[in-house]
C-alpha cells in the first residue's frame, strides 16, 4: 500500500459504511416493522448496484491499469477489491440476522415468511398443484454435457442448480427462474403466509429432471459487472443515439462476474465447478439464507387491513401545498410576483407541474426548454410538454439517455416527446447532462420575459414524494437570461459557455467553488462554510476544505453517503465537522453556503462534490437571492444540524457514532413534515394570537 493523504479515506469503503447505516435503521426498534423490512430491502438493492457498478468498474481497472493508485487510500484496484470483499462479509451476516429478527416479530401480526418445511399439509398440496400448473410449464431446465454447453447465467436472476446422477454418470443441472414468475407465492387462507418461488422450484427439482438422482442442490444468484457506458464503446456507430444505447443495454447482460450469492453451503466439488465456469474465486462467494431479493417487502402492506397496516408502517403523509399558494391562484402569475421554493417531499411537486400545465396552454408562452435525467414510469410532466408542443409552443427537451438503469425508460419517453413535436437533444459525447433546469419564455406586451425553475433533484413525480429536494421557481430576469444562454449552448454543443449568475459544470462550477472557498480562507477564523451533499470525493475540493480548516474556517457538512474527507485530523481538518442523516426519506438536496449574514452567498445545485459532477457532467448551481427563500433553506439546514435521532457524526477513523448531548430529541424529517402541515394552511385561514384567544372564550 502506498502513501495516502492523512485526511482522506477510500471511496468504496466509505460507501459501505453508508449502507451499513441503512441497515442500522432496519435494526432500530423505534421504526415500524414493515418500514424496517424496507430498509433491509434498500440495503440489499443498494449492495446489488454497488457490486454491478463500483466493483465492476474496479474489476475493469484492475485489468486495464493494475498498478494505478487511488490517491485517497493508496491502494491498487486489486487491493481495493480485496478490501471490499472482506468488508462486505460481516454485512451479509448482519443482514441475515436483521431479516429473520424482523420476520419473527411480524409473525405476531399474522405475516409469516415460510420455508418449505414450515408448510401445513394442505399448503403443501396447494403449492404442489401451483408448481405443476403455473411454474413448471414456463421453466427451462437444462443439463450440461457434451451436447449441452454450460448456460449463460443472467445477471441478478435466481437459478436452482444441482449435481445430478444418471446411470452412474454425474452431470450438472440448472433451472433459471424467469422474470415472468413472481418472486414469492402467497398462500390462501387467513393472515399473510408466503415463500419464495425459488425454494418451491428447488423442492420439486426431481420433477424437472425425471430419471436423475439429485445429489446436491442450491439456489444461486450471480451479479455481473454492469458498468458499461457509451464512452467505453469505441466501435464506429453512425446511427441514432437511441440505437446505440439499445446496443449498450444488450452488452450489459453478458459482462464479467463479480459476485455469487448462494442459499446454502455447497460441496467443494460443486464450488470448484461453478468458479471455473463463471470465472470467480472463493472470496467472491457469499452464503445467505435470507432471500436474494427483498422486493416483496414493498407489497406486504397492501395485503393487510388498514388497522394493521397503520401499526406496522410510518404514519401516512401527503406532500403539502404551501399556504402561500392560494387555491385558485395561477402559478404563472404567482411566480412573477416573487421567488417560490418547494421543499420535497414535505411540499408537493404539483405547483411546478401546474406551472408547466398553465404554460402549455398560455398564449403568451413562446417556448419551454428543460433538461431531463430521470422520470417516473408515469409522468404528467411529459403529458404537459407534449401538450405544449401540440399547442404550437417551441418545446426543447434535453434528455439524458445514459441515466444508469433508467436508459430504457428514457429512450421510451424520448420517442413519445419526439412524436408530439418536441425537439429532442441527447447531450454530449463524454459528458452526461445531470442538471435540473427548466426555462419558460413568454412574450408580455411585446417584451420577452423569462421564468426559470432550477432544482436539486430529478423531474420524477415518484421520487419527489420519497427524496428530500429543493425546487426554486423564479422570475429573476438575470437568472432567466443565463438559463436562456445555457440552452442556446446546449443546442450547439458548446460546453464553454459563460454565465453571470449560474455556475455550470464542467467549466465554471468547480472554479467558482474554489474561489468562494478562498474568500472564506482569507477571513481566517471568521470564515464560515456549510454544505449539504450526497457525496464528497473530488480531491481538489477536499484539499481546499483542508486548507480552509487549517486557516481556522469553521466548516459544517451534512453528507448522506460517500465522504472521502475525514474530519478532526490533527493539523489537517480540526475545524471540519461532518454528519450524515439516514431516515424515512432519502436526503438528496445539495446546498452550498459561504459566509454569514448579509454577505452570505448561497446556492442550490444538482452537483455533489464528486469529480464526475464537477468535471465530467453538465451541472447547474443557482444563487439564492430572495431573503425569504434563504430563510427557508436556513431553517432546513438548522434542523438537519439539530437532529439527534437520525443523524450520525463522522469520526476521524471513518466510523460514525450517534449524536450525544442533552438536547431534546429531534428528528429533522419529522419536524419538516410538521412544518409543512402547519404552513399548508392558507394565509387567510391562519388566526392571530388575539383571534385564537377570542375563539377559545367563545
From TrEMBL:
Matches recorded under Pfam families: PP_kinase, PP_kinase_C, PP_kinase_C_1, PP_kinase_N
Catalytic site positions: 434 (phosphohistidine intermediate)
Domain Polyphosphate kinase C-terminal: 331-490, 502-660
Keyword Methyltransferase: no
Name of the protein described by the UniProt record: Polyphosphate kinase
Processing after translation: An intermediate of this reaction is the autophosphorylated ppk in which a phosphate is covalently linked to a histidine residue through a N-P bond.
Binding residue positions for Mg(2+): 374, 404
One GO term of the biological process aspect: polyphosphate biosynthetic process
Gene behind the chain: ppk1
Protein keywords: ATP-binding, Kinase, Magnesium, Metal-binding, Nucleotide-binding, Phosphoprotein, Transferase
Function: Catalyzes the reversible transfer of the terminal phosphate of ATP to form a long-chain polyphosphate (polyP).
Species name: Candidatus Avoscillospira stercoripullorum
Record EC number: 2.7.4.1
InterPro entries, alphabetized: PP_kinase, PP_kinase_C_1, PP_kinase_middle, PP_kinase_middle_dom_sf, PPK_C_dom2, PPK_N_dom, PPK_N_dom_sf
Keyword match Transferase: yes
HAMAP family the UniProt entry points to: Polyphosphate_kinase
Family classification: Belongs to the polyphosphate kinase 1 (PPK1) family.
Listed GO CC annotations: polyphosphate kinase complex
